[in-house]
Amino acid sequence: MKIEHILPADIERRSMEIIEDELGDIILPPDEKDIIKRVVHTSADFDYVRNLRFSPGAVEQALTALKSGCTIVTDTNMACMGISQPGLEKLGCRKVCFMADADVAAVAKAQGTTRAQASMDKAAALEGAVIVAVGNAPTALLRLRELIDAGKMKPALIIGVPVGFVNVVYAKETIMEAGVPYIVAKGRKGGSTIAAAICNALIYRLTRG
Amino acid sequence: MKIEHILPADIERRSMEIIEDELGDIILPPDEKDIIKRVVHTSADFDYVRNLRFSPGAVEQALTALKSGCTIVTDTNMACMGISQPGLEKLGCRKVCFMADADVAAVAKAQGTTRAQASMDKAAALEGAVIVAVGNAPTALLRLRELIDAGKMKPALIIGVPVGFVNVVYAKETIMEAGVPYIVAKGRKGGSTIAAAICNALIYRLTRG
């Protein structure tokens, strides 16, 4: 293995070429392609090529929300940190994570729920279009489903990519049947970097040349 | 797929049981076991069972550094965010990421290098024991190797887990031959969540019952 001499600015383009090469004969849906490739770029894991599932029209609905100056809510500060701030500023959008908020901790303690659940309750009170990106807590997805079923929330998009071994697969299936636009990584895999990568792919669609 | 009714506090323990079950007959080295399991827990990716490589004594040297109140330097704010602050406080350690610092941006621009390289130069000037955790930039690892070879830096541990397709495999191999303690994810995989998970596994070894 030798070093490839390349300018830092060209590394992402070259990476995407390598991913494209290795996809070989696999044809990705045009609307999903750059999102799937960015997730592979972020993980070096081609499993996401078959794991990522999009509800019909999900990408278009997400782009409409981003163009309207929406709020992206995450379930971890890591995912929030990973979302492009310059991109959000260009669009007049913002990102928030309520997990470390004192009021969320207090509600979770009082109700005997997780902070992830309480932070979704707080997200339901936001004004305007909301994209929810869940990279960690299946309980966040389960709570979102309850809020949707109760008519208390109608996210423009749910990015459902928590990672793990307990209730993660179930929580993702629950969101795929919630009747709202979704991008979900079926199975156990996902994480904060995956949630951020999907947000960034959507943002870059609107902000990069 | 049905829901598993479990208290939030028990989810991590149950996840580790599932990972243990699925490892089957694979025997992990006792000193590495909890680190490997935490990375699998963070990624749901059993590839790390064979990808993670430890230099002899790496874990012991890292624990010595953590007991001495070391600094953990990361190459992304995401990884830095993911490292347990309560755990660090118990140990009298701290975490830093220089990537967003104005002086690092200025040096990188002036020298035509990446901010990751310039942030490693800044790390080389730190007092006391340093653990460097690289989850993103292969150029950070290549710069570390140069600093080590020049006698300008002697990290207590390098966590070398950048993810990607360009120079990532090469940079990891370079670190495995640098003559310093390392934990490396061989191959393309890794990321900020993996870097943070390895840090946390080491921290928890010393701070959890």
UniProtKB/TrEMBL annotation, chains A, B:
Recorded coiled-coil stretches: none
Domain called Cobalamin biosynthesis precorrin-8X methylmutase CobH/CbiC: residue spans: 10-204
Pathway recorded for this protein: Cofactor biosynthesis; adenosylcobalamin biosynthesis
Alphabetized GO MF terms: precorrin-8X methylmutase activity
GO biological process annotation, one example: cobalamin biosynthetic process
Key words of the record: Cobalamin biosynthesis, Isomerase
Keyword Isomerase: yes
A Pfam family reported for this protein in Swiss-Prot or TrEMBL: CbiC
Family: Belongs to the CobH/CbiC family.
The protein, known as: Putative precorrin-8X methylmutase
